[in-house]
Design a protein that fits this description.
66% helix, single chain, 115 residues
Amino acid sequence: MPETVNFTGAVDRDLLKRAKILAAKSDTSVNALFNAELRYLVETFEAAEVSGNENFRTLLDFSLGRVDDGQAMEALGIDSDEDLFLLMAQAHLPMPRLPEARTRSMVDDLNALRK
């Protein structure tokens, strides 16, 4: 069995509550869920790196809001949002966040309306 270490991290309170419910329904622990998901993410990323396939990195960047849908589709050589979201589901990645610059711009626009 691999050696384990404790670490400290932060998680959204509502997400943790939902994870606890899922863990209870699955007769497991939040720790086991976290380890399984993190292992999947790391092993998939490493396997893609070893094979020289940049698709997983592109999907991860899209999921994290580092690239937008157009950039991701161009890099993946696909031409539909549906295909992109199917690849996201197959890669077991969460749906994307807006790019940080776009989010900041939206916040600035909303703040400007208050003036």
